[in-house]
Amino acid sequence: MSQRRFCKWEVSRSLSELIVIVLLLILSLSGARALASDLTSDIETLIAQSGIDPKATVAVYVVDAQTSEVLVNRHGEKPMIPASNNKLLTTAAGLSLLGPEHRFVTKLYTDGPLTTPTLPGNLYVVGGGDPTISGRFEPNKRDVTAPLRRWADTLTSLGITRIRGRILADDTLFDDQYFHPTWYPGERGEWYEAEISALAFNDNCVDLLWSAEKRMPGDLADVTLNPPTRYVRLHNHVRVVAKGRSAERWYLRKAGSNDIVATGTLTVGTTKEDSASVNDGALYFATVFHEVLTSAGITVEGKPKHVRPTPAEQRRYKRVLIAERESPPLREIVKVINLVSQNFYADCLLKYLGRTKLGEGSFDAGCRVVMDFCRKQQLYHEGHRMVDGSGLADRNRVTPRQLVEVIRFMDQGPYRTYWRESLPIGGERGSLKSRFQETTETRTRARFIMGKTGLIDEVRSLSGIVRTDSGRERYYSIIVNGFRRDGQRVIQLIDRIAVALTRD
């Protein structure tokens, strides 16, 4: 073959290969567009058939995890109220800025000489923003005072049997805005509106163990407080009802009060465990610690006191460190935030971010840190507004697209494993454990759906990662705002959309 003929043959072959590649790309793009069109059409059909309030806004944004191609964009760039999907922003910033091994430290001092058997001064507890001082990470989760008993054991091992002073509780790492002004005040007694303080005990809640095992319909239900503290006064109006009747309880508490009014019902022959929030988490900590020391045979002569010393006063204190308590690593705390949607943990993390990055342990400073993080990582979208870390406030705004981009950022970053471990999975764990139970197909596909749930008045949301039949993954966000009825139907719609996203 001559050189000239060879060159012509090579050019012809190269041109043919190029044409094939272009045709394959066209076919691929056409297939992708067809897939996106089919998904969008399926979702529109589901919405039309759902029977939800026609005034509701249903926003859906979905991308292919591998190619980043947008598969669905229905109001995807509209700022929406995210409810607890806000926690995705808080935990993404927390893991990224603090690292998964970060631990919160609470310290126990005395402000006098460390003498035995009597301490002449006070015990001084300094809060480090740790939300985990409870039974949650203990072998027995109901053993809520276990962390405090370990401190009592330390004092006993030092030979201390009496404290002349009192227990002083310092929570100045955070500000004194314990309750966000946009949260609904009528529900401040519920666990999900617990006060946010730098020194806290048992999620700033008291647990209530209810029993109707020895009662008849119409009787008052039996209740036991855990811990059995004098710090709260419970007014029990919970009645036993017959089997088959709905049973639910509510907790009312006025601002500044620890009088908790319990109302509602409990089914005959059953037991339930609830939690109700308390006022002044730092004083709650000090009071229960006082009670624990008394039970351990250590006398504390003075009454517990909540203190907020100024920086100048803190510098003047001469304190001797007795003990300190480290929290579990942040990667475990993030699991609690996202798996069970723990508002208290989320807003403690938010305020801690504000304190460590801006020197101000407040809701506002924490939100500025998270929003700055989003800007620096090119995750910020126009209309993003953040006022708390938990999503309990209805003034938060975020687009479904921004949530998807945050999910993608974390899932493709160094903390992917910890991020995924924190997300609920349909039918298996967290707040999705009881979802997707309608049919055999939904129960089968549930395990392919990973996502963070959200629920406040007129808001339902779900954002996360789905896997399709072929093993491809998709990042998604579904947010519904503005409905005035049938919240359960909205959840059913969201679940059906999520199931549809698992199909190829």
Automatic annotation (TrEMBL):
Domain of life: Bacteria
BP-aspect Gene Ontology terms: peptidoglycan metabolic process; proteolysis
Pfam families: Peptidase_S13
Coiled-coil regions, chain positions: none
Protein name: D-alanyl-D-alanine carboxypeptidase
InterPro entries: Beta-lactam/transpept-like, Peptidase_S13
Classification via NCBIfam families: PBP4 (TIGR00666)
Family according to the record: Belongs to the peptidase S13 family.
Organism of derivation: Sumerlaea chitinivorans
PANTHER family xrefs: D-ALANYL-D-ALANINE CARBOXYPEPTIDASE, PENICILLIN-SENSITIVE CARBOXYPEPTIDASE A
UniProt entry keywords in alphabetical sequence: Carboxypeptidase, Hydrolase, Protease
MF (Gene Ontology): serine-type carboxypeptidase activity
